Structures are given as structure tokens and as C-alpha cells.
Amino acid sequence: xxxxxxxxxxxxxxxxxxxxxxxxxxxxxxxxxxxxxxxxxxxxxxxxxxxxxxxxxxxxxxxxxxxxxxxxxxxxxxxxxxxxxxxxxxxxxxxxxxxxxxxxxxxxxxxxxxxxxxxxxxxxxxx
Length: 127
Description:
Elements: E1 4-7, E2 10-13, E3 18-24, E4 32-39, E5 46-52, E6 58-60, E7 68-73, E8 78-83, E9 92-100, E10 116-117, E11 121-126
Parallel strand pairs: 2-11
Antiparallel strand pairs: 1-3, 3-8, 4-5, 4-9, 5-6, 7-8, 9-10, 9-11
């Protein structure tokens, strides 16, 4: 079974940048969607952004547009979440999630759509 391995979380100051990484435990050759979700203290897990591996299309929730970028690197089979201008409200555990595709499909913002999840990485932004 494929597992997703996340890394890159940490403690930063307001306005800082951070990059999270998400890599499958085994090479994944099929097309898939990879999404980032986050869950703040006492909150529901929420969609942050996602990418379609095949064509690089992305989608973001409004609160991170212009600050966060999701990219993929074919050479390392890794998806990144580049976060800039971080704010205290970005503090959360960040999870990557994956869904393999048998045919092209639009990105989903629903967490139930994704069937493989990482363990989560903590991002804390100090004011």
C-alpha cells in the first residue's frame, strides 16, 4: 500500500516562508490528484490547494491564493506546498492526500475524495 511521506513543517514568524514536501513511499506512475489540507486547533480539516499531476493544473482555497503554491517534481515524484507571507491563522497540521485517477477528472476540494493520506506535519506561525 502506498504511503505518503510529508516533511518541512516547523515554527516560523509572521511573514516568513516555508516549503512542505509530500512524496509517495513507492514510485507512482499513474496520474493522480495530490491535495493539501490543514487542520487548525479545534477546527475541521480544510482544503488548502491541489494539483493534477498529469497536466499541472492547480486549485486553491481563497485564503491562500497568491501566497501558497502547489508544484510537482517529476524527477523526485514529489509534490510541494510553497507557503509565503505566513500568518498566525495558517497555524495548523498540514496533510497531503492523494487520489489515483483512471481517467481525467476535476480537482476535488472534498477530503472524502482522497483515499491516501500522509501523517501530517505541524506548521506554527508566531505573531
